[in-house]
Amino acid sequence: MAALTQYTRALQGEITEEMRSVATQEGRGAEEILQGIAQGTIVIPVNNLRPRGQYCGIGAGLKTKVNANIGTSRSYSDISEEKLKLAVSIESGADAVMDLSTGSNIDRVRQELIKDCQIAFGTVPIYQAAVEAVAKRGGVVHMEPAEILAAIKKQAEDGVDFMTVHAGLTLATLERLQKDPRITDVVSRGGSFLLGWMLQNEKENPFYEYFDDILAIAGRYDVTLSLGDALRPGCVADATDRSQIHELIILGELVDRCRDAGVQVIVEGPGHVPLDQVATNIKLQKRLCHNAPFYVLGPLVTDVAPGYDHITAAIGGAIAAAAGADFLCYVTPAEHLGLPDEEAVRQGIMASRIAGHAADVVKGVQGAGEWDLAMAKARKDLNWAEQKRLAIDPRTFEQYTKHRDETGCSMCGPYCSMKIVSRYLGRKTGPC
């Protein structure tokens, strides 16, 4: 029996409630959304056990979406703190969050977070399988494939909407990595777990070997599979090498298997990439993965900005999204340094949202250019209330305009260019 997912229902011509919700948010026709899902170029991450008030579509022709990573670590495991980060993520306009917890009581953390989450919720199941293998047997390399599948099933039953599965790292890909060494080797945490497991056990990647079993679970719950890039480059010098591209070829083949099984699928991408290779990476993915939605981490376009990597990622993210990437995973100022706090989460989301919107303007996404035009008119009219309403971050807008008085803002005062030019052109502006 075929899985009853958004994808299979679209193939049957059924417009679902979720498709209508996405169409309304995007200002598109429901039939357009259905066609995108049927072609595999759009997904709606929605576990069928967790109906919500709103849904987001990710893919071709839609607004670029933003994900925020939260979750505990072994050295810092406070559920209340992660719940605050979840609230900040939602308030700041994230379209999705992923729980990357590796601290204590992973099940409870996930269940507490998902209970409060009305946006798409993702996980990386190998983290739980690895942490539990360490607790039971003293090492990640002692994971059992059955335990990985059990973690996927448990998380699907909890209502997780999308999951990263690192199924493209194969023994053949590892061979290329060994023959063509990198500066930073493997920086994906899930990828490093699997690399160690494969070398220690001299066996194929269990995510790849048991991919049909994973598809069966995903299809049952309509979990969107996010095919992870275990070999994403960890520095710009490692970008677009043989290992990365070989894994991408495998991911493209797995996209076909997902679609054959009726499972929604997106593909994850780099990573650290120099400016001149960002667009090329997107075009390669779209070609090799048959236009599946592309989910990128950044990309970060330089390695020398710790503390400012939300900016390096926003630069790469804008170029990537303009070239066709559909989903930006935020990067916070704490990247490479430590676990982000609430303010770092907020800054990471805003940076990625700005990058995505800048790309949407040039891609002609419905409503993107109109938003900029409305802001331009509000500035011309010196309409501060409207500017605040239109601002991507009204809180920061308010912070920087608090010193404004009747003569104007604290930058120009009575020497406002808008007022001066309008006076001589005989045009009206609003009050400061």
Describe the overall structure.
The protein is an alpha/beta fold and 432 residues long. The protein has two domains: 6-363, Radical SAM ThiC family, central domain (TIM Barrel, Alpha-Beta Barrel); 368-425, no CATH class. Helix content is 51%, strand content 9%. The chain has helices spanning 6-11, 17-26, 30-39, 79-91, 106-115, 125-137, 145-157, 171-179, 189-201, 206-209, 211-221, 242-260, 275-288, 309-323, 342-363, 368-380, 384-390, 394-401, 417-425, and strands at residues 42-43, 58-59, 65-70, 96-99, 120-123, 162-165, 224-227, 265-269, 294-297, 327-329. The strands form two sheets. Strands 3-4-5-6-7-8-9-10 form an eight-stranded parallel β-barrel, surrounded by six helices. Strand 3 (65-70), helix 4 (79-91) and strand 4 form a beta-alpha-beta unit. The longest helix has 22 residues, at 342-363. 47% of the residues are buried. The mean pLDDT is 95.
Concise description?
By secondary structure, the chain is an alpha/beta fold. It has helices at residues 6-11, 17-26, 30-39, 79-91, 106-115, 125-137, 145-157, 171-179, 189-201, 206-209, 211-221, 242-260, 275-288, 309-323, 342-363, 368-380, 384-390, 394-401, 417-425, and strands at 42-43, 58-59, 65-70, 96-99, 120-123, 162-165, 224-227, 265-269, 294-297, 327-329.
Outline the secondary-structure elements.
Layout: H1 6-11, H2 17-26, H3 30-39, E1 42-43, E2 58-59, E3 65-70, H4 79-91, E4 96-99, H5 106-115, E5 120-123, H6 125-137, H7 145-157, E6 162-165, H8 171-179, H9 189-201, H10 206-209, H11 211-221, E7 224-227, H12 242-260, E8 265-269, H13 275-288, E9 294-297, H14 309-323, E10 327-329, H15 342-363, H16 368-380, H17 384-390, H18 394-401, H19 417-425
Parallel strand pairs: 3-4, 3-10, 4-5, 5-6, 6-7, 7-8, 8-9, 9-10
Antiparallel strand pairs: 1-2
Helix pairs in contact: 2-3, 4-15, 6-7, 7-11, 8-12, 13-14, 14-15, 16-17, 17-18
